[in-house]
Amino acid sequence: MEIKLIILSLALVLDRLVGDPPVLWQKIPHPVVLFGRAIGWGERRWNHSTSPDDKLHRSGMWLTIGLVTFCILLGLLIEALLPLLGTAGALVEIIIVAVLLAQKSLADHVHAVAQGLRKEGIEGGRRAVSMIVGRNPEQLDEGEVSRAAIESLAENASDGIVAPVFWFIIGGLPGLFAYKLINTADSMIGHLNDRYRHFGRFAARLDDVINYIPARLTGLLAVLAALFNISKESGRAAFSVMCADARLHRSPNAGWPESAFAGALGLALAGPRQYGEEKVAGPMLNAQGKRDAGADDIDAALALFWSSMSLLTGLMIAASLMRLIYRLV
Question: Transmembrane residues, as ranges (predicted)?
Fold first, then answer.
C-alpha cells in the first residue's frame, strides 16, 4: 500500500506541475479520448431510435459493463508487467496516473474564463466557458459565466481528481481505468434527453454510485481548505452550506463540492440553467450569497481549489510516510 501511496503522491505533484502538454496529445490520443471513441462506436452501433426502450437500456448497460471489464483487465495486465521493468516500471505508473488526473488542465481552463472576461469582456468569457460547460453560453451574462466556471471547477475537482485518487487507492490501475471509463460514459451518454434517456441510464446511475464517496470527500477538502487558508468563518460557512444545501442539487453528488465552494466564497451557485433548447430548473445553493460574480471570484475559487489539492496531496504524502514508518518499525 505504501508504494501505491508514494506513486499517487508523485503523480499528483507531476500533474500539478506539468498537466497535459498539448504537444504530446497532438501526436498520440489521450487515454480518455480512446475511451470516448470506444463509447461512441458502441453508441452508434446499438443506440437506435427505433429500438424498444428496454432493449436500449440493456444495450447501454452491456456496452458499459463490457468496456469496464476491458479496462479492469487492461489495468491488471499493465500492473503485472510493470514490475518487470524495475524502477522504470514505477516511473511509468506515476506517469499513467498523472495523465488520468486533471488538476492543472482543469485550473487552466477555468483561469481562461477569468482572463477572457478581463481581456475581451463578456464575449471572451462566454467563449472560454463554452469549453468546460454544456449550457448555452450565448444566454449567460458576466455573473452567470463566472458562476458556471466556478461550478464546473468545484464539480470537476471531484470527478477529475479526488475520485480518480480514491479509486486508484481502492483498486490500483484497474480501479482508476474503470472509473475514467464510467465517468467518460456518463459525460457522453448519461443525459436525460430523447437520444440517451434509456441507452445511457445505466452509465449515469453507475457514475452516481462510484462518485458518492469522492464527492463528499471533495466537499470536506474544500471546507478544510477554506478553514485553514481563508478564515474560520469561511470554513464554517462552507460546512454549514454544504450540510444544508448539498441535497438540493439535481445531482446526488455535484451538490457537495459546489455547495462547499458556494459557502466558502459567499456565492450563490447552481439554480436554473439552459442546455441547448432545454431549460433545467433547480434551487440555488447558498441562495443568500451574491450572484453578480466576476473574474475576481473565479480567482478566489481557483485559490480554494489549489488549497484543496494541496491538502489532498499532503494527506497522501503523510499517509505514505506513516505506512513506510509503520513497516520499518
Answer: 59-77, 84-102, 161-182, 209-230, 304-326
- pLDDT tier, 278 (very low <50, low <70, confident <90, very high otherwise): low
Which grid coordinates are listed for 131? 469549453
**Is pLDDT of 212 > 70?**
yes
Q: Is the pLDDT of residue 69 over 90?
A: yes
Q: Write down the residue that cell numbers 467518460 correspond to.
A: 184
Q: Is 279 helix (H, G, I), strand (E, B) or coil?
A: strand
**Phi-psi region at 191: left, alpha or beta (left = phi > 0; alpha = psi -120 to 50):** beta
Q: Which helix (H) or strand (E) holds 316?
A: helix 295-328
pLDDT at 214 over 70: yes
DSSP string of 216-277, one letter each residue: HHHHHHHHHHHHHHT-HHHHHHHHHHHHHHGGGSSSTTTHHHHHHHHHHHTB-EE-SEEETT
Q: For the chain, what percent of residues have pLDDT higher than 70?
A: 97
* Burial degree of 236 (CB within 10 A; 0-12, 13-18, 19+): middle
**How many whole angstroms separate alpha carbon 234 and alpha carbon 228?**
9
CB-CB contact of 301 with 265 (8 Å): yes
How deeply is 319 buried, as exposed, middle or buried, from its count of CB atoms within 10 A (0-12, 13-18, 19+)? middle
Query: 163 φ, ψ to 5°?
Result: -65, -45
Asked if residue 253 lies in contact with residue 215, where contact means CB atoms within 8 angstroms, the answer is yes
Phi, psi for residue 266 in degrees, rounded to 5: 70, 30
Per-residue HEC secondary structure of 67-122 comes to HHHHHHHHHHHHHHHHHHHCHHHHHHHHHHHHHCCCHHHHHHHHHHHHHHHHHHHH
